[in-house]
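A further point concerns the way the authors explain their paired sequence and structure data. Nothing conveys this as quickly as seeing an actual entry. An entry of this sort, consisting of the sequence and the corresponding backbone structure tokens, reads as follows:
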Amino acid sequence: MGWRQHKLFQLVWRISNLLLIASVLVSLYGLGWEFSVRRYLKGFSDAIVPATATPEQKVQYILDWMRVGPPRAVSADPSDLSRRDPETTLNYEQLLNVCGTATNAFLNLARSSGLQARRLLLLTTERTTMHVVAEVLIQDRWVIVDPTYRVIPRDAQGRMLTRTDLQDPATFSQAINRIKGYPPEYTFQTVAHVRLARFVPHRFGLRKFLDSIYPGWDAAAYWSLLLERESLFFLCAALFTTFLLFLWRSGLAWYADKRLKLPRIRLRQKAVRAGVALFSPPEIK
């Protein structure tokens, strides 16, 4: 039987090829978008953070820029602003004063400055987010940085603190007493790096499943940027879709070869022949 006797399969095959081609093009677009964002952030961070600064100094330079930087744009309607676009979060006054977007801006600049950084959500007992801060790896310790208040919390001795340190009531009290206007209810007793309930309801048990197969999965710094940088999420989603479509097309190709015994044009063989014809020396008759 030829392709004419399998019109449904032929339709599925053509649609799959079109979707795969479209997905590859979208992935290329996403790659260009993410590359342009990284170049923008690199130029931005280079302008405010000296290359020779220590990790602690880099954090302080970024916080100083957030505190006393140049005049920023003000939007008449902040709800219309993209909260996951670094160029927007870095340039609008309202977004730099909100904990979530201020932390996003800090994380993007920190990573572009060569720091390992990730976000940390401070949760209520009902596991709703009440505040967002950052963690930065300095001297093998994930120390807390609060971009909203533009500070690195410290104890009475001036030591930078981790979230474990801040879970001690006495240390927490020492730290917030040094931060003007810091709400005492923003404690570190219940925290998370990724709040899955934002995407999948808690009753489905996705977090418990992920914890069972990969403990500590949400602690990877990559998650912070994946979820909060629009261009990176778009690129990863496009690449993942391309991978799935490639697997689907490979399965269809196997079915056409092994089950239906249909002759088809093999792009790999055509590409090899085209390459041979292109690079072979011309024949002189």
Observations:
- DSSP finds ten helices and four strands in the chain.
- The radius of gyration is 26 Å.
- The mean pLDDT is 87.
